[in-house]
Amino acid sequence: MKLSLSMPDSDVIYLTEDEDEGIYFIDLSKYPGQLLNGGTLQALAISGNPSFDTRNWESRTVDVGQQLDVEWIDLDNIRQS
């Protein structure tokens, strides 16, 4: 992860991966005020197509300014390396 942002007065942390195949994450705290005591990790995905590639490197898959419906999907059974 390259960037994390905890919103003041919130139990939410936003995270990004600064990689070629980076993902936007959100960590929702299970216990208010106790971010380190568990919660739910979610990733931002295109609604109806969670593996959609938005990079536009080899061909244009998303036009500049195009709006897409998105959703947060739960990430279960995450292994830390």
What can you see in these coordinates?
This protein has 81 residues and is an all-beta fold. The protein has no helices and 5 strands. The protein has strands at residues 3-6, 12-16, 24-29, 39-46, 70-74. The chain starts with a strand and ends in a 7-residue tail after the last strand. The model has no long low-confidence stretch (mean pLDDT 80).
Itemize the secondary structure elements and their pairings:
Blueprint (H helix, E strand, L loop, with lengths): L2 E4 L5 E5 L7 E6 L9 E8 L23 E5 L7
Strand order of the largest sheet: 1-2-3-4-5
| Helix percent band | under 10%
What is the number of helices?
A: 0
Largest sheet: 5 strands, antiparallel
Order of helices and strands: EEEEE
Outline:
elongated
Structural class: mainly beta
Gap from first CA to last CA: 13 Å
Radius of gyration: 15 Å
**Unreliable stretches covering 5 or more consecutive residues:** none
Percent of sequence in beta strands? 25-35%
Q: How many β strands by DSSP?
A: 5
What does the average pLDDT come to? 80
